[in-house]
Design goal:
Length: about 190
């Protein structure tokens, strides 16, 4: 949660706290990580140690591995930054488009109808990743593909939505009480 606050602080309002964050499944990082590991590290260093044992090829392998490391960091950040943040005020969907570009959408709890998920395909059943959909009253839907632990996210969303609505109803009731008591006091003074 500390990492979430550091990364997503620019999307939070004053007094808003992240209660739960929904991220994509780790399988999203596995394939690019294997490709980067093979082509970015194993292949150039194998060539270096097998027969291209020269100073220029050493620096080529170092630069190539450095670029592969940067690519891996990009993939890791992309995986972590595409998220839903369930906060004490609303749900924030963040879609990362690049280093200097992202789209953040706030969905109020009162506008959310619920969440549903769809398991797609053989690998989705085996590795337990799903497409998670947040249904909104306006008819639009927020979708997060290849997400893990859908039941946990659905329960967290329902729990925090209920807690938010109960707190808001309590505040509204207290405001109404104060308003009515002020009205009665005003009427009693004017008699």
């Amino acid at each position: 949660m500390i990492l979430d606050r550091l990364i997503y602080h620019k999307h939070l309002e004053k007094g808003e706290k992240i209660l739960y964050s929904v991220h994509k499944h780790w399988i999203e990082v596995a394939k690019p990580a294997l490709e980067i590991g093979f082509f970015g590290f194993a292949l150039p260093w194998t060539f270096f140690f097998v027969g291209f044992d020269s100073r220029p090829f050493f620096w080529i392998a170092v630069v190539w591995s450095g670029m592969a490391y940067l690519r891996f960091m990009y993939v890791l950040i992309y995986w972590y930054a595409n998220t839903w943040l369930i906060t004490n005020m609303n749900v924030i969907t963040i879609e990362w488009k690049g280093i200097f570009s992202n789209i953040a959408t706030r969905l109020g709890y009162e506008d959310i109808e619920g969440a549903s998920y769809e398991i797609k395909g053989f690998w989705g059943s085996i590795f337990r990743y799903v497409n998670l959909v947040l249904r909104v009253m306006s008819g639009s839907h927020a979708k997060l593909e290849n997400f893990s632990r859908p039941k946990k996210a659905e329960l967290a969303l329902a729990r925090f939505k209920e807690q938010f609505l109960n707190d808001r109803n309590l505040k509204d009731a207290n405001t109404l009480k104060r308003l009515l008591s002020n009205l009665v006091m005003y009427e009693n003074r004017n008699r």
